[in-house]
Input
Amino acid sequence: MTELKGWLLAENPDSRTQAAFGRGYLGWLRFYHNPLAMIGFVIVLALLLMAIFAPYIAPEDVTSGLTGDALKNGRFLPPSAEHWFGTDGQANDVFSRIIIGSRITLFIVAIVIFTAPVLGFIIGTVSGYFGGWVDILLMRITDVFLAFPKLVLALALAAALGRGLESAIFAIAITSWPAYARLARAETLTIRNTDYLAAAKLQGAGHWRLISGHIMPLCLSSLIVRVTLDMAGIILTAAGLGFLGLGAQPPTPEWGAMIAEGRDYILSYWWLATFPGIAIFTVALGFNLLGDGLRDVLDPKSGGQH
Output
């Protein structure tokens, strides 16, 4: 272990691989010594594990399938040893629905972060690199999307496309990319006239080689931090669409839809909306804390703070 640590912390690395591992190790040390970042990391890791092993963790199915007297006697049971988070109006176990619902939340986040940031990243770097009429055209399109509040635009798109999880995901993705485009463009403008890019041009590198091989890697750390911080907003937007009936539809155990189902009973059966709300709050907090920790690690200006 001591030899490995010495290899990672070597002042004069023997290879680019050793230097990369050394930078990663130093970044992990800064992240590890940030208590709030570690709390966020544990929350996000718990969400991932919960989503992966949801069928084995959830004590019951998503829908109870009860009828007659069994349904009547199983409705609106308060939290107990048998039903940790109580049951809903269809005698479904709320704890099981929250566990299974974590898969839907993670699915929404995964689809959005693999579409919106990629699209915005490409548009922003191309716009900042070429400038001129390309920059004007792409940024005016971006400004059109930024002129509307994200949630309002997402609501309008989801309503126009029809209710459903797919419509909600598309609406969130199509309203999220402009922020990444602006960020990538700003980063590109600061480095497009640097000496090493000029040297690469003299060596015969084309425009797309410069963008993909030199500019994009330098902008990637800022993009990762922004994506991590935006995950909380994505979760809240998806929950908002579900709450308003424009996202996942019952009986799908989406957390926002579960809160909507329990809002009419909030005074009588408080657990129906409280526990899904706590789940949304906890996951959003975890992603925010994780994003703050990654920002401290990936921001070169904060390298000596921890």
About this structure: The CA atoms of residues 244 and 260 lie 7 Å apart. DSSP finds 14 helices and no strands in the chain. The longest helix spans residues 207-243.
